[in-house]
Specification:
Blueprint lengths: L8 E3 L2 E5 L13 E9 L8 E12 L14 E12 L9 E10 L1 E10 L8 H4 L14 E5 L6 E5 L9 E9 L4 E7 L2 H4 E6 L2 E6 L4 E4 L3 E7 L9 H5 L7 E10 L6 E8 L6 E8 L10 E9 L4 E7 L15 E2 L13 E6 L11 E7 L9 E7 L11 E4 L5 E5 L9 E3 L8 E7 L3 E2 L1 E6 L8 E4 L5 E2 L4 E12 L6 E8 L2 E7 L10 E13 L10 E9 L4 H4 L1 E10 L5 E9 L2
Parallel strand pairs: 3-11, 15-21, 20-26, 22-31, 33-39
Antiparallel strand pairs: 1-2, 2-5, 3-6, 4-5, 4-7, 4-8, 7-10, 8-9, 11-14, 12-13, 15-18, 16-17, 16-19, 19-20, 22-25, 23-24, 23-28, 26-27, 28-30, 29-32, 33-36, 34-35, 34-37, 37-38
């Protein structure tokens, strides 16, 4: 195990401590190297801005080590003061060097934790100094700005990070060598990481962290331009039916899964609506086993346009975005790529009484497959479930029965020769697959056809995901003791792991609003677990209770963390006893 000291030293603006809590100072002769870590992000079309407030970053040599501020085997770098960043500004190759010049003991590191100030912590100066698009200071340390339905009005909501004191985990391996510098970038991937959910009558947000990291000496870039004359230039234009224009364009670099069964999104970015430009950077040029990644398939999708795929786009290690110091990026086409407008859309939602199960917190992907022998599906769209009911907070829009896929092989930067194809699933149809947050395999629900006219909505029934081989179905027996509850009449128990909600339970029936004492018991089933013969190192969980008064969700919401953690690493059953006092 790596040991770092409790004594702190200022290192290029960062305060370095061992775990944040104790241990002997490192020996003066301890060998060290330098780590620079940049932050980047992918896009989302469900919100306009997302601010998070960072306080520290922590490193460990053991990928399975549980975080504790008092554990000196963690090497923690504290910022001199919390820093608030709008992650939505960090796409199209943009990077933020938040953690620079970190001096780490020599070794092989396998886990990183990003530590944030939660939305319910006292408002930090950096958040107070940050303005939303309405010109007001942020209301929370972690905040989301989104548009009201069918409106140009910007609304603000807290980003409710599940048990933020545990940090956001990233597992990966990198080596620190004496006297050398390691340059890393971490992608927060907003489209997959941010989860809208219903809170009272409001929309709030939480996280399903889907972090990826990149060794910046082994990355590449792809750039391109789409015809900007076909893009909506204002939010008002997005809602106009005539003339139609394209909006919410997302460009994805996709790779085959390890088993070759489907394509998955390795990196994504937005399109600048004014110029039509986009940049996919950084991109891996090697996989986790060191095998060369020579090319990507690039998928372009959006609202009011037909989906496009450019196949076998080569990448060159060391290539960077235009104007950067490095090799030139791969350009899809030297001129703007023409778009095929098509406003024939429909929306999809879970069927009534058919939420994601056995756990309510997960995601769904919508795939389409090209014709031809051995073809496997591409991921066109995806959406997280509301972890409190197992369905989408908002139905997902999809291209309808009049749309085609437009496919072209890469042509060395010259004009792309697209041909139109009807996907194997059928025009406007998608292969639907769903999964839980962790330790389950993707369940395929089959093909969802588009709705029959004149309907513009469709439903699907998810397929039950299956636990990974060697992972058990665990049970947590919960008993909550409530006391002194006044106006609160809504209650949700939240089970979390690594800042992601795993499962929830509606506990409002146990509340007594007369200030008395009440106890409720229930079980959470299907929670991933290990056993003594095959432990699951990450199967430990944290819990908290959300309380509020119906109709006054914003003013009365409060979070009650339950101390300790629930350990299912080597057993399939555990008990959680918690006390929930009044405000």
């Amino acid at each position: 195990m790596l040991t770092a000291g409790a004594g702190c030293a200022l290192i290029l603006g960062l305060t370095a401590c061992g775990g944040g809590g104790g241990g002997a100072n490192p020996a003066p002769t301890q060998m060290k190297g330098t780590v620079n870590l940049q932050i980047t992000d992918g896009p989302s079309d469900e919100f306009q801005h997302l601010w998070v407030t960072f306080t520290a970053i922590s490193f460990h040599t053991d990928p399975n080590a549980a975080w504790s501020a008092s554990d000196a085997t963690w090497v923690t770098m504290k910022l001199p003061a919390p820093v608030t960043i709008d992650l939505t500004t960090l796409n199209n190759g943009a990077l933020n060097t938040l953690f620079s010049g970190m001096s780490l003991p020599v070794g092989t590191y396998r886990q990183i934790r990003f530590l944030l100030d939660g939305p319910d912590a006292p408002l930090d100066a950096s958040a107070l100094a940050t303005k939303d698009s309405n010109g007001a200071a942020l209301q929370w340390n972690d905040q989301v700005e989104y548009l009201a339905a069918n409106s140009t009005t910007a609304l603000e909501s807290p980003l409710e990070i599940a048990y933020p004191t545990q940090g956001i985990q990233l597992v990966g391996t990198f080596n620190v060598v004496q006297g050398a510098t390691v340059n890393l970038a971490v992608d927060f991937d907003l489209e997959q990481s941010i989860v809208p959910f219903k809170h009272d009558t409001l929309t709030y947000f939480t996280m399903r962290p889907n972090l990826r990291y990149y060794d910046m000496t082994q990355v590449a870039a792809i750039t391109g331009t789409v015809d900007p004359s076909k893009l909506c230039q204002t939010i008002a234009a997005e809602g106009a039916q005539s003339p139609a224009c394209a909006f919410n364009l997302i460009v994805k670099a996709e790779l085959l899964t390890a088993d070759g069964s489907r394509h998955y999104v390795a990196r994504a970015t937005t399109v600048d609506p004014v110029t039509g430009n986009f940049t996919l950077y950084p991109l891996w040029t090697q996989d986790a086993s060191g095998n060369v990644i020579a090319s990507y398939d690039v998928l372009i999708r959006g609202r009011n346009i037909e989906t496009m795929i450019v196949q076998t786009v080569p990448v060159t290690m060391g290539s960077v975005p235009p104007g950067g110091l490095g090799l030139a990026p791969t350009r899809l086409q030297s001129t703007p790529i023409a778009l095929t407008l098509n406003s024939g859309e429909y929306t999809a939602q879970f069927a009534a009484n058919a939420p994601l199960a056995p756990l309510t917190s997960g995601y769904v992907i919508f795939q389409q497959t090209l014709s031809g022998a051995g073809a496997v599906p591409y991921q066109v769209r995806g959406r997280n479930t509301d972890p409190f009911n197992g369905t989408f907070r908002n139905p997902i829009p999809l291209q309808g029965s009049t749309s085609s896929l437009h496919v072209a092989p890469y042509n060395g930067g010259n004009a792309l020769a697209f041909n139109s194809q009807t996907p194997v699933e059928g025009a406007g149809a998608f292969t639907v697959a769903d999964n839980e947050v962790a330790y389950y395999t993707l369940g395929t629900a089959g093909v969802m056809p588009p709705p029959s006219a004149p309907s513009t909505s469709q439903t699907f029934t998810p397929a039950p995901p299956v636990l990974l081989s060697g992972v058990q179905s665990g049970t947590i027996n919960v008993t909550l003791a409530f006391s002194g509850i006044g106006v609160d009449n809504q209650c949700e128990l939240v089970l979390a792991r690594f800042a992601a909600i795993v499962d929830t339970y509606d506990c409002h029936s146990f509340l007594s609003t007369n200030g008395g004492t009440n106890t409720g018991s229930f079980a959470l089933n299907g929670v991933p677990a290990g056993d003594s013969a095959m432990p699951v190192p990450g199967a430990y969980y944290y819990a908290y209770v959300r309380l509020w008064q119906a109709g006054h969700g914003a003013a009365t919401r409060r979070i009650v963390p339950l101390p300790g953690f629930i350990d299912l690493r080597s057993t399939s059953a555990a008990t959680l006893n918690g006390s929930v006092p009044g405000a």
